[in-house]
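Q: Can I borrow your eye for a moment on a structure tokenisation matter? Would you mind producing a protein record, from residues through to fold? Write it directly below this note and I will take it from there.
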Amino acid sequence: MALVSALVAVAVVAAVLPLFNDLTGKQLILNPYDLKLWSGIGIIIFITGLLSGSYPAWLLSSFKISKSLKGVIKHSLASVLFRNALVVFQFSLSILLIIGTLVVSQQMDYILSKNLGLDKENLIFINMKGDLAKQVDVYKTELLKIPEVDMVTFASGNPLSYGRSTGGASWEGKDPNQEVEINVLMVDIDFIQTMKMEINQGRNF
């Protein structure tokens, strides 16, 4: 049963992995030639079979045949408690797995549906290095000559994963006791329009 279950699990993972990659944007693969993978699966099958078969084997070996034929088999309190503990443990694991699945599902739904404040579809982010960063105007002109390119903008980092921030921002009417952390991004004049951002207050450059 452990062997069949493992093979079915591998087949299910192989079938749903492309869908999972599309959902998460990752490129996870199931390599059928990975010896470490199959070694790990083999160890899990062995341990599962050993643990699941040990208790029945121990229980059967403790039976007294003469008493069983007379119908006077009595279960000790310890064996009853142990069996009940196994049932509770199994249901507890099932509940934890269900809760974990619901939490992950909600997190994925949040990630996919959260309003980021910009339109990230059909955007390409390119890291500029070396002399290319010194010729941004020429590079921008050449990129705009490509028919498939609608707009080009430059920024000091990816707005969705930028780590530079400041807590020293101030404005008229700000509470002096209030501390506000603001992400800082150096951008050019076309950044807001290219990212299709909506300005809450004020105006564009």
In short: The chain has a mean pLDDT of 84.
